[in-house]
Amino acid sequence: MHGPTSPGWLLVALCAGTGAYCLLRMRSSVEEQRRAAGGEALMGFGMAAMAVPGTVFSPPPWTWPLYAVVFGAAALRALWAARGSPHHLHHLVGSAAMVYMAVVMAASPGSHHVHGGAGVPLLTGALLLYFTGYVLLSGVRLVPAAVAAGTGAVGWGDRPELARACRLSMGIGMVAMLLTL
């Protein structure tokens, strides 16, 4: 991605850490949580790879079309899964945003001003609004709720507050990545 090196590495660390936790969540005993965690792990690691500062590593030209294909497939899977769960609509928007960013990056190799002086394109602005709203709503949902008595020990993959924090982190990362376009 385009932008300063230090914040770029912080974004890489945030997204990679989130992806790693999502891999741990894939060990959950609840099938729906495992499925969602797999998609979120893909998103976290994909965002981490895409966020590596361009001043440190310039990926080969075939990388961006590959990202577009991988996240295009993830978007199709999320669209199919959205029939049963509205949560997958967010995965669809996230995957589509990754495809959009990959296409923009493929169209502007080495350029630090992808959109020129025309301001923020409509799609980038719409995605920024969506993810900003998602981050704010996720932050409110992260406020701890009373724990039900007698629930017993919960494994790392089944902790809803950590899953919400994971989604919040990826939403923040998406906002940061969209701002650098």
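Above is the first protein from milestone M3; the second protein from the same milestone is given next.
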Amino acid sequence: MEVTTGFFYLFSVVLLYAAFRVITARNPVHAVLHLILAFSQAAGVWLLLKAEFLAIVLVLVYLGAVMVLFLFVVMMLDIRIESVRQGFWRHFPLAVVVGGIVGLEMAAVLMTGFHTVEAPQAMAAVVNGAGQVVEVSNTKALGMLLYTEYLLPVEIAAVILLVAMIAAIALTLRERKDSKAINPASQIRVRARDRMVMVNVPATRAPEPPAAPAAEESKP
């Protein structure tokens, strides 16, 4: 057995185990951790298929951002496990039917085989600016296509994502009333006569009469 075949079986076994534990773990934090393990093993399978760009994106985007965010959200929320598992057995037959259909489809694809699919190639042929055909890696070829032929769609997508990010920040931004932050613009516009205001407060009670002078001691 070749080394790549051994790694494929290793990654596949761990991936199946992690995916099974995602749906059977009682603790949601454990389920998220097993999902992170499943994504890492899927990235290893992508590397074996010589699709290093997809493997790197899977690790950076899902493991580095999405799954960590899910983990913090699950740990911060007070999730009641009993209420989550109330309808498990009620929906179990439907889950079995859907899982069986997916399993039959995968079995049909595997039994048919991939005879028409060529073996993955680590190098791709692209045409450079001088019109010459050169062989580069898949990641470099994808980058050259994105920033040459598909430059306008990439820029449009970047602008849309930027607008969505700014809109999300603007919608969730709230001014706190208990904040002690000082606006520098208000400090600059302040005037001397506005720093202190004299207010006439009416008297609430009559003034007391002045005390009588003490009698002078008699001289001897």
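Note on the second protein: The longest helix spans residues 52-76.
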